[in-house]
Structures are given as structure tokens and as C-alpha cells.
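Table S2 (text version). Query chain:
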Amino acid sequence: MRRIAIVGAGQAGLQLALGLLAADYEVTLVADRSPDEVRQGQVTSTQIMFHTALDQERELGLNHWEDQTPPIEGLGITVATPDGVRRADWMGRLDHYAQSVDQRVKMAGWMEEFTERGGHLVLRAAGVADLEALSRGHDLVVVATGKGELSTLFARDPLHSPFLTPQRALSAAYVHGLGPRLDHDRPGLSASFVAGVGALFVLPSYTTSGPCGALLWEAVPGGPADVFAGVRDPGERLRLILELVERHTPWEHARTAKVELTDERATLTGGYPPVVRHPVAELPSGALVLGAGDVLVLADPAGAQGANSAAKCATAYLRSIVEHGDGPFDREFMERTFARYWDTAGAAITRFTNTMLAPLPEHVQRMFMVANEYPEVADRFVNAFDDPSLLRDWFYQPEEMARYLDDVRMRGGAGAGA
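Corresponding C-alpha cell output:
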């Protein structure tokens, strides 16, 4: 039986670990917190997972919270000027629902399942010396923790990493008491992009106390919504989030006015530069380790892709490892394994996320406005969140976008959402 060690207990690390156990590998998982510490700790993210990533969890029998978690049936897009004039305001219909589960719930549950299935869980903040020890006792070591000392082992890929500093200042809260958007005809995520200010994401979710809502501000650094530096009190963080909602996205104010935090650890603030790193790191001993998930592709939440990217990475790695059989886990295998993920998901996710961080190009703004009148356009765009490669042939090229929009107008908007 081949032995594999995974360092990091997030979406990529745990999904891969559980998949390998199901495929009869001996798996060691190194995590810096116990399941109870994760469950009772600070929130680590907001996230939305679309159909493909949810299906990958279903295939492994890991969708334990699906029945309790509110479905997200559409994505609403609002594009506004700094003074609050909405130039675009619509909701596209997803072909398959998405969902959001607080990672405190999911990762704690998956860690417990990992040990119940026979996995070996080691609680330790791993460093380079730990990787050296793991490499001596395992056939393959995978590093799936995106922050801290270990991530710096993997060289930055400048070709795919245009940013050196955080592009957004993030502030989030999980809340009870969130109402629906009455002008939307289905439950969904609402994303409001306000020029010069940033973006507000509002979505239904599921947390330690049950169904809830989540609010995420992505503030332009130095802009009017970048007000959270040094604010540590959870209640004050929520107050500032709601103050920004009322001031910059008043169309979201009514349904957020009476929300309360789900718990005292239900807020987070921070920021990080999106980055892509090379997949293989060499330890001082010469041993090689393979990166996975956020350690290699750390995406800003602007594209709502982070957890999806990690799930798709875990799926690609699992298939590559199983198909490799008894072959050597050498550099060629590691680079080929990452390329499988990058070519099928990572590259498209990175391009889309980085595009959504930049000022929206004129042709994209025009598309958002056309979608006000033609639901077909709205539906096509929002379904690409499940697979951003679907944007490749029309979203990035002004000429192709214009040709598509002209065709929609000529047909009168017939299609998926019409």
C-alpha cells in the first residue's frame, strides 16, 4: 500500500485525503488545529461552490450538509457608479444550484470522518523539518496549506501573478436575520460592483448554528470602504459592514438592516495578493514535495472561485495519483499532475478572477447593461462561474463580445433565460 502525506486540512487537502483513503491508500494528514478547534474557531472564509465542485464532493460521499444548506439558484449582478446610479441590475439563472457551507462546519466534519475512515491525523504546525521527516516515511508529500512558511517554498510564477500587493481589503460576517432581495425571483448570491469603492457579496449560507447569510465587502485599498484596519471587535466589524451597505449599496440595506452575527467568531478581515506558484518545491535534503490548492493558485474572492479551484485541484490530483499506479512520484509526475489541474481549471479561474479585480473593460460593462434586457446574456455569464473556461471565446475579446451581443439582439434574446 502506497503511503501519502498531506499537509493542510482545507478544501484541497481534506478532499484529496478522503479520496485517497477511499482508493485504499495509507494517508497521513497534518493539520494545525483539531476538529473542535476548527469548529469553535474564527471563520476563515466565505465561499460559494458551484455544480461541478459540488458534484466532485458528492462522488466521494462528502456532501453531508447539502440537505440543510440553502440552495443558490441564481447570481445577481449590480454595477453602479460611485454616486449610486445602477447601470446594470439583474439576476441570471444557474442551470444547477450552488451552495455555501461555512468551512468551520465542513472541515471539522471532514477531519473527523478522515480519522473514522482510518486516516492518520497529526496535529502540528508543520515546518520544513516536518516535511523532511514526512518525505522519508511516505511515497509522496503534498503541501496544501496556502499561507505561512511552507507556501514560500514554492516559487512565484510571475507570468501568471500580475499583483504584488492585495487588490482588495476584505471584511466578512456570517449573520442571522438576512432577508431576500425582493426584486429577485429566486434565492441567490447578489454581487454589487461600485466603481472606486469595491464590491459587496450577499448570499445564503450554512454555519455552525444552521442556515444563515453571509456578507463580504471587497474594498478598493485606500477607497471609502477600506475602513477595517485595526478593527478587532466583531460587533464593530458588523456595524461598519452595515454602514457601508447603507451608504454605497442602499438597494441591499432593507434586507440587512436587522441582521445579527451568528456567533462571536463569525467575522474576518484581511487581504492578500493573488498569486500562482510553481508546483514543485525541493527541500534542503533534495526531496521533492508537490503543492496543491491555495499554495499554488491563491485567487481573490472577487471571482467566487477559491473553494471551487481547490476542489477541482483535489479531483485532478486524485485521478493522477490513482492512474499513476506504482510509478515514481518524481518531478515529472508532479509537474504533469499540476498541469492537469491548470489546463482544465486553474488557468481559466486565474484569468477570470484577475479580470474581475481590474476596472471592468468597456465591453464587459456593455454586456452587463445588455443583460438588463436579455436574460439569455445574464444566464450565459453566471453559468460560467461553474466553469470559467466557458468565457474563453467571447468574454475577453471586445470583437467577439460585440458579435455575440448583436446576435442576441437580432434574435430578440431567445435562449436559456428568455
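Notes on Table S2: The chain has twelve helices and 16 strands. Residues 72-99+165-270 form a domain with the D-Amino Acid Oxidase; Chain A, domain 2 fold (CATH 3.30.9.40).
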